[in-house]
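Internal tracking record. Fields below are filled automatically when a chain is submitted to the structure queue. Please do not edit lines marked as system-generated. If the sequence contains nonstandard residues, flag them in the REMARKS field before resubmitting.
Queue: standard
Priority: normal
Entity type: single polypeptide chain
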Amino acid sequence: MEKAEKVIITVVGKDTVGIIAKVCTFLSEKKINILDISQTIVSGFFNMMMIADMNGSDISFGDLCDGMDKIGSEIGVSIKCQKEEIFDEMHRI
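SYSTEM-GENERATED OUTPUT FOLLOWS
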C-alpha cells in the first residue's frame, strides 16, 4: 500500500449555506479522499479543517490550491492548502 499524499485544507469566513458542499464536491470530482474533517461556527464565522489524501487524484497540488482559491473567491471564504509535511514542520514545537 502506498503512502498517503496528505494535504491540510483550512476554510475560514463568514458562515453561509453550502460551504462544505462546494468544497467536498470539488474534492470528490478530483478523486481526492477526505480522511478527516472538523468544522465549527463561532459568532457567525465558519472554520473548517480537513485532512485529505491526493493519491487517487491526477491533479497536482498546485491545481488543487488554484481550485480551492477559485471556490473561496466565489463563496467569500479563505481556503488554504498545505502539504502535510510542511504543516507538520510549521507547527512543530
